[in-house]
Design goal:
Blueprint (H helix, E strand, L loop, with lengths): L11 H20 L4 E2 H10 L22 H4 L1 H16 L5 E5 L5 H12 L7 E4 L3 H14 L7 E3 L7 E8 L8 E6 L2 E10 L2 E8 L3 H14 L8 E5 L1 H13 E13 L1 H4 L10 E4 L2 E3 L10 E3 L2 E2 H8 L5 E7 H7 L2 H6 L6 H15 L8 E8 L18
Parallel strand pairs: 2-3, 2-5, 3-4, 5-10, 10-14
Antiparallel strand pairs: 1-7, 6-7, 6-9, 7-8, 10-16, 11-12, 11-13, 15-16
Helix pairs in contact: 4-5, 8-10
The protein binds S-adenosylmethionine.
């Protein structure tokens, strides 16, 4: 799918930057013999040091960037998430927090300020982000708005060997590079990227990785091509699985809380979702062409929450809950938090009511986004999953 012609134009500097990213990827393709997997392409386009979308200097999140996440929409989001964290912290002796992919740092800020208001600060708030550029933005934001809390905030370079407390990731799994697969004529192929006529082109190859091939074969029955002559495109996120395995290995006691957009497997690989879930975000426009201006746009895919859950089956983790973002936030008391502002105070109340609508409306983020939790040695049912259980969809 090519990008629509109506996308905003990039300036000269941005175009030069994108050209450098394009050349870096082209060189990798040439060095690899003419083809790289889409997973490698996405990794380079998003995370090539100093060049990739998340590794270079442009503003990405918020109204001045390319897309808006829940913490950027409203502090109500972080304040509600903090209620769930507070419940967990109260049940543990020396809990820490570890946030992955903290973006602008806004979620960390809102959570920390809310926990402070409730006298429930953790021992440490760790942040681990693969983007050095975003880490600098997080440090600047937290130093400006919560200078008295910086002593408990620490940035990590890698996943620690052991952890007790709450691990949190909002919209991180969707940013992990995925493999692109096409099922056609009862066979599955890996979609990769080649360089032809001065541009990137899709090129299919047999699937060489045994793990990927086994997964593509398992999914064939769901996709149910039957006699259809149309190809079926979709994604498999092995990196999210490896990430979950790492988290399950290190968690001694506590909770992993993940919020992201996606579905259970039957919906993800529904026969009618034949174009897959790849999405690109450029200056608040969404389209489906991952080759458009590499380095200047975000590339994402939806999360297969069944795959995430299967990854931790047969480990010491248990599913702590799976529900929509709307149910999760309402269970955490987001409407009570809004009610702390008087409805007669229109100047403050109306913008927040509007933000709440964006977070929980089924037409906006409320249903597409899900919250999922995994627990280890945690004694209580989690408040965020009290109503609206959807674990049968996994
Ligand atoms: C879509 S942004 C979400 C930012 C933030 N959580 C929010 O909700 O606004 C994705 C973030 O995940 C980070 N990221 C991607 N893969 C990661 C990984 N494997 N470990 C840690 N951070 C990662 C990116 O650098 C970026 O900060």
């Amino acid at each position: 799918m090519s990008a629509p012609k109506t996308l905003p134009l990039a300036n000269e500097d941005a175009l030069n930057h994108s050209r450098s990213v394009q050349m870096r990827i082209r060189d990798k393709i040439v060095a690899a013999g003419g083809w790289i997997s889409f997973e490698q392409f996405m990794h380079l386009a998003l995370y090539a040091p100093g060049l990739g979308y998340y590794s270079s200097g442009a503003t990405k999140l918020g109204s001045a960037g390319d897309f808006v996440t829940a913490p950027e929409i409203s502090p109500l989001f972080g304040r509600a998430v903090a209620q769930q964290i507070k419940q967990i912290i109260h049940c543990m002796s020396t809990p820490d927090l570890l946030e992955f992919g903290a973006g602008s740092g806004k979620l960390a800020l809102d959570i920390l300020l809310e926990l402070e208001r409730s006298n429930a600060l953790p021992r440490k708030y760790y942040i681990l982000d693969v983007s050095a550029e975003l880490r600098s933005r997080q440090q600047a934001l937290l130093a400006e708005h919560a200078p008295h809390l910086t002593a408990i905030i620490e940035w990590l370079e890698q996943i620690p060997p052991r952890f007790s407390g709450v691990m949190l990731a909002n919209e991180v799994l969707d940013a992990m590079p995925v493999h692109s697969i096409v099922w056609h004529s009862n066979a599955a192929f890996e979609r990769g990227v080649a360089w032809e006529n001065e541009q990137f082109v899709w090129q299919n190859r047999p699937i060489l990785s045994a793990e990927l091939r086994a997964m593509a074969e398992t999914l064939s029955s769901l996709i149910n091509l039957g006699g259809s002559s149309h190809p079926y495109f979709s994604e498999i996120n092995l990196n999210a699985r490896y990430f979950m395995r790492s988290l399950s290995d290190i968690l001694q006691q506590g909770v992993i809380l993940l919020i992201d957009y996606g579905f259970g497997r039957n919906e993800y690989y529904h026969p009618q979702r034949s174009e897959g879930t790849l999405m690109c975000h450029y200056r608040h426009h969404t389209h489906g062409d991952p080759f458009y201006l590499p380095g200047l746009q975000d590339i994402t895919s939806h999360v297969d929450f069944s795959a995430i859950t299967q990854t931790v089956e047969n480990t010491h983790l248990e599913l702590g809950g799976y529900t929509t973002q709307a149910h999760f936030l309402i269970n955490c008391g987001i409407t009570d938090i809004l009610a702390q502002t008087s409805a007669e105070d229109l100047t403050h109340y109306l913008p927040q009511a509007n933000q709440l609508h964006r977070l929980i409306s089924p037409a906006e983020m409320g249903e597409l986004f899900k919250a999922i939790a995994f627990v280890k040695d945690f004694p209580e049912p989690l408040m965020g999953f009290h109503r609206g259980d959807m674990s049968r969809m996994l």
